[in-house]
Design brief:
Keywords (chains A, B): DNA-binding, Transcription, Transcription regulation
Structural class of chain A: mainly alpha
Helix content of chain A: over 70%
Protein name (chains A, B): AcrR family transcriptional regulator
Largest interface: A-B, 49 and 49 residues
Oligomer: homodimer
CATH topology of the largest domain in chain A: Tetracycline Repressor, domain 2
GO molecular function (chains A, B): DNA-binding transcription factor activity; transcription cis-regulatory region binding
Distance between the termini of chain A: 61 Å
Number of helices of chain A: 10
Organism (chains A, B): Jiangella mangrovi
């Protein structure tokens, strides 16, 4: 976003709120992904989006919650969850996109910073959990439930545990162990969640 | 720790370094578990342990790294990993102790705060990952490897993936989803990791 662009916006008078909001989220998302969470200040976002800081204060309780919402907007198209009817293929596809997004498309740092902030900032915690992590879990659970109905998963399988064991495994490496990983992990992860680690009984 | 206690220490002259270190870690661990990470300042720990702030600055680069080491010292006796030869029983016992430690013995907040701090503080990240999370993974992997040798786990099972899918699942609920959970989760978690979620092929 350039000064010229911001000036052009100002010259046009009052823009529709939805348009301003989209511009603000896009600017915050760019800052978040390229420079990390500390770069997402109301000052910089307002400047880059050609909006006023007063507007930002009205819409978000803190820069951290704006950053969280910007992350959801940026990640949504990347993290689509395919629905082909083959649960193994759909899980591998979705988790591969997630791991690439983290490790190759720059999301590892902002995700770590957002989850990190969520541990001590209740507003960020609420935005992250309620608007991202739990809705994503719901989506995964819907797909797993459909697979269970089709007979691909055991009737007594705990679908939330499957979610924990797939996405939780990636977060474990990213946040807790802090070891590098890449998408070659994904097929092993999915197969082990589906078929187990024990010798056949 | 009382003023009286601190005074008694000072009156005894120079104490052995190992004794001072143990007192400092114990004081930091108490503050961490009862009041959380922000309570672990060099000021308060020095006062509670009857030691000098200079000593603390010499031994730890920051209060966060002192808190991390204090956490390891506090958690070590709680998180012993039994070795009975029955991998399912040992995993259930260890994970049950871990989940109780988080949810009933007050460790959820300090663990969240430490992992949160590790996302932006490289010293805490290093202390957490290198001195706690990865050595704990090694210990789990040793147990899993022994079970594999005994024929309880498949020869092609990825042991690190099992670790991610067990402990990572707990951290996922604690840090990412921020949903309550308790030790009734553990047997389902272990059985699903061992026997899989898919219908038998």
């Amino acid at each position: 976003m350039t000064e010229q662009h911001a000036t052009r916006h100002r010259g046009r008078g009052r823009r529709p709120a939805a348009e301003v909001r989209a511009d603000v989220l896009a600017a915050a998302g760019r800052l978040l992904l390229h420079e990390g969470l500390p770069a997402v200040t109301f000052d910089r976002v307002a400047r880059e989006a050609g909006s006023s800081k007063v507007t930002l204060y009205k819409w978000w309780p803190s820069p951290g919650t704006l950053a969280a919402e910007a992350y959801f907007a940026q990640s949504a198209p990347v993290l689509r969850f395919p629905d082909t009817g083959d649960i193994r293929a759909d899980l591998v596809a979705q988790l591969t996109a997630f791991v690439r997004w983290l490790t190759r498309e720059g999301a590892a740092t902002p995700v770590s910073e957002l989850v990190g902030a969520a541990q001590t900032d209740p507003d960020v915690a609420r935005a992250w959990a309620e608007e991202y992590a739990r809705p994503r879990r719901e989506l995964a659970r819907d797909r797993l439930h459909a697979a269970q109905q089709r007979g691909q998963l055991r009737e007594d399988a705990d679908l939330e545990v499957i979610v924990d064991q797939l996405w939780g495994a990636c977060y474990h490496r990213l946040l807790v162990l802090k070891v590098p990983f890449d998408e070659t992990l994904v097929p092993r992860l999915v197969d082990q969640a589906l078929y187990g680690a024990a010798r056949a009984r």
